[in-house]
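Hi support team,

I've been running sequence recovery on a batch of backbones for a student project. Most finish fine, but this one hangs at about 90% for roughly twenty minutes before it completes. I'm not sure whether the input is malformed or the queue is just slow. I've pasted the structure tokens below so you can try to reproduce it. Let me know if you need the job ID as well.

Thanks,
M.K.
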């Protein structure tokens, strides 16, 4: 064979080897890319054989509150499903192995720390290490549920606002007339004074409800000006202090700022502060302390109202702020909702936390009002 022919064969062999190596590198690159896509998928990915976990990605580890994958590997997927739903999952896996389609289905997972996660699970057949397996995709529904709850609350607020606008105006005029004639009758029939006092008290309660409904029906903040929150808090404390002393309650304002000025509607913010302090006082029928802390950063002023009551029961904590929901015999179920609406109209927010040592209502108001 000539040197030229041998050179051509050698060149072809080199080219062939290079192509194989390039193909191998491409395969390795694609495998690594696929591994990363699966590992860092926003959904949990689990691969099982005979119901036993063979693989779980990082997202699944976080969902189940595991510190390492070894806490999940080689365990049955059924161990992480609520006992009431295990038979359902078994049936779906059996159907899947028989070639039937397994559509997404909601399940309750029990995490390693005992907490609960509401999820949607979908399963498809696959191969793992050259053996038949089940590829399970788990989607966390927590954010979706939060969004749905927010939408429902928003719809309730909208409906309540529309009702408020109509009801309040229709009722206010006849109530004013009734109150006027009642005062005339009271002077003519002095021997029935006790009855008139009861009727007058109930009319005043109706007017209070109407005022709260009207506040709900007027979401726009109109009288905006610079207000010193230290002065405003002191005014509210002075207003409520007599009632607090009679109930053996001490109101302690603490100011961690020197000026604490914000742009707001003074009367509306005063109404919010009165509502939250009154709620704190009512949470302590045997007396105690109400702490009011005011502090300011570069962007917001934070006001905290903390009581020493027994706290809000866990079963009703999620309903606080719903229209017309109240635990008080004489409550309207509008106070907290109206207060939240006022703060939100100031581009602020209200956060409520509670335990057996008491409840803390935290109000954030931006220093500059924007809408």
């Amino acid at each position: 064979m000539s040197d030229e022919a041998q050179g051509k064969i050698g060149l072809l062999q080199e080219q062939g080897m290079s192509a194989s190596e390039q193909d191998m590198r491409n395969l390795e690159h694609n495998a690594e890319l696929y591994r990363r896509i699966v590992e860092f998928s926003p959904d949990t990915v689990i691969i099982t054989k005979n119901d036993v976990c063979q693989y779980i990605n990082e997202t699944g580890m976080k969902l189940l509150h595991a510190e390492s994958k070894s806490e999940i590997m080689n365990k049955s997927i059924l161990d992480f499903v609520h006992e009431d739903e295990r038979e359902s999952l078994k049936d779906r896996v059996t159907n899947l192995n028989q070639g039937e389609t397994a559509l997404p289905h909601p399940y309750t997972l029990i995490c390693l720390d005992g907490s609960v996660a509401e999820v949607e699970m979908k399963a498809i057949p696959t191969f793992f290490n050259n053996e038949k397996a089940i590829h399970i995709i788990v989607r966390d529904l927590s954010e979706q549920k939060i969004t749905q709850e927010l939408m429902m609350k928003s719809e309730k607020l909208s409906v309540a606002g529309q009702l408020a606008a109509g009801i309040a105006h229709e009722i206010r005029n006849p109530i004013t007339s009734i109150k006027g004639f009642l005062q005339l009758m009271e002077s003519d029939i002095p021997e029935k004074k006790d009855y008139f006092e009861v009727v007058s008290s109930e009319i005043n309660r109706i007017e209070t409800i109407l005022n709260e409904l009207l506040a709900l029906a007027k979401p726009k903040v109109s009288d905006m000006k610079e207000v010193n929150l230290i002065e405003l808090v002191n005014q509210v404390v002075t207003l409520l202090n007599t009632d607090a002393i009679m109930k053996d309650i001490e109101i302690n304002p603490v100011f961690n700022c020197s000026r604490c000025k914000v742009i707001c509607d003074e009367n509306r913010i005063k109404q919010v502060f009165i509502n939250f302090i009154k709620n704190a006082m009512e949470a302590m029928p045997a007396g105690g302390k109400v702490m009011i802390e005011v502090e300011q950063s570069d962007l917001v002023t934070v006001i905290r109202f903390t009581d020493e009551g027994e706290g809000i029961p866990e079963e009703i904590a999620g309903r606080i702020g719903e229209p017309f929901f109240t635990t008080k015999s004489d409550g309207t179920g509008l106070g907290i909702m109206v207060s939240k609406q006022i703060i939100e109209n100031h581009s602020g927010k209200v956060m409520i936390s509670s335990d057996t040592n008491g409840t803390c209502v935290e109000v954030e108001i931006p220093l500059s009002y924007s809408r």
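--
Follow-up from support: It reproduced on our side and the slowdown came from queue contention, not your input. Residues 2-12 have pLDDT under 50 and may be disordered. No action needed from you.
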